[in-house]
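In this section we walk through a basic example: taking a raw amino acid sequence and producing a predicted 3D structure, encoded as C-alpha cells. The instruction is simple. Fold the sequence below.
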Amino acid sequence: MIRYALVCDEAHEFEGWFGSSGDFDDQSERGLVGCPICDSKAVTKQIMAPSVAGTKKTTDLAPQVRSMVMEAMGRVRKHVEDNFDYVGDTFADEARAIHEGRSEDRGIYGEATPAEIKSLTEDGVPIAAMPPAPPKKSEVN
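The resulting C-alpha cell sequence is shown next.
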C-alpha cells in the first residue's frame, strides 16, 4: 500500500491509500478519486517525504485497518440511507431551508455541486459528505 497526501482544487487536504504507484493515476483518470469534503474530482498528489523502512520488523496493519474503516463507512452510509430523507439534487436548497427554519428539522441526504457545498459551508449550514458507496467488484484492482 502507498499513502499519498492529496489536495483538491478547493485546497482541502486529505490522504489516500493505493495498492501501487500507478493506481492513483488510473483511479483519478476514471473519476474514482474525489475530495471527501467537496467531492471535487480535481485532486492532485502533494509532495511528501518518503517513508524509509527501518530494520525492526513490524506487523502490517494497513489491510486490517482499511477493512475496519471500510466496514464502518458502510454502516454509516446504510444508517443514513435507512433513516434520512433522500432529497436528490434539491439537497442544497433543502439543507438551507432546514437551517433557516423554513422546513421541518430532519436528517436529509442527496446530491449537491461543489459550488453549492462551498456556499452552504461558508454560510454555516452544517453538512458532511456521505461515505462513498462501496466500489463494485469490477472497479476494484
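Looking at the output, two observations stand out. The chain is about 35% helix and 15% strand. The CA atoms of residues 5 and 15 lie 4 Å apart. In the next section we compare this with other chains.
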